[in-house]
Amino acid sequence: MDYLQKQNSEDLSFYPKQVFEREINNGRILLALVNTQHAGYLYHGKVVAQKPLKIHQACIEYDIRGNWYGAGLVGVLEGIGKLAQSHGICLRCGSELAANQFWKLMGFDCVSVAEGGVRRLRDVNTWWKTINQDLFPFEVVRPSAKQKNPSVYLKAYRERSNSKKSLT
C-alpha cells in the first residue's frame, strides 16, 4: 500500500505507513489480490450504523486498472455498508483525475464541488452512492473537470527562494 501510495503521490493524499498498519488491524483496509500479490487497496472509515461510510483512499496498480479490481473492492464495501445499515458511501476526488469516471460508472453521483488547496489549484468533487434507503437524498451536481494548475504555487516558491538568497 505504501508503494502504491508513493507511485501515485500526485493523485492521492498522503498517509504515513503507521496509519496503514493501524487501519489493517482495525479492519478498515480492503485488499485486491492478483495471484496472491497485492494489486490495490481501499481504505475506508469506521463502520457505524445509520452513518455514511467514507472512502479515504482507493488505489489500484496502474497496469491492471480497468479490470474490475476496484469495482470488486467497492462491491465488498457496499456489502459491509448494507449489513451495517449505512445510508451510503462518500468520497472526495480531485477534479482532474480519471477516477471521477470510475466513480460515476460505479453508480456514484457528484453531490458537491469545492475548491481544492493552493498547491494543486484544482477542484475537489464529492461523490455519493446511496446503499440503503435515504430519507433525504442529495441533489446531484455536475462534477468539475478542472485541471490542476501549480503555476501560482511555483511562482510563490520561486519568490520565496529568491528572497532567501538575497538575505544571505
Approximate helicity band? 25-40%
Q: In order across it, which strands form the biggest sheet?
A: 1-2-3-4-6-5
Major beta sheet summary: 6 strands, mixed
Poorly predicted regions: none
Number of helical elements: 5
Strand content: 25-35%
- List the helices and strands in order: HHEEEHEHEEH
Distance between the termini: 42 Å
Q: Which value, in Å, is the CA radius of gyration? A: 18 Å
What's the total count of β strands? Answer: 6
Describe the structure.
With 168 residues, this protein is an alpha+beta fold. The chain is built from five helices and six strands. A hairpin with a 7-residue loop joins β5 and β6 (123-130). The chain is globular. The mean pLDDT is 84.
Short description:
The protein is of the alpha+beta class and 168 residues long.
Describe the secondary-structure layout.
Elements: H1 2-7, H2 17-25, E1 29-34, E2 37-44, E3 53-60, H3 69-83, E4 88-94, H4 99-105, E5 109-115, E6 123-130, H5 151-167
Keywords for this entry:
single chain; 168 residues; alpha+beta; six-stranded mixed β-sheet
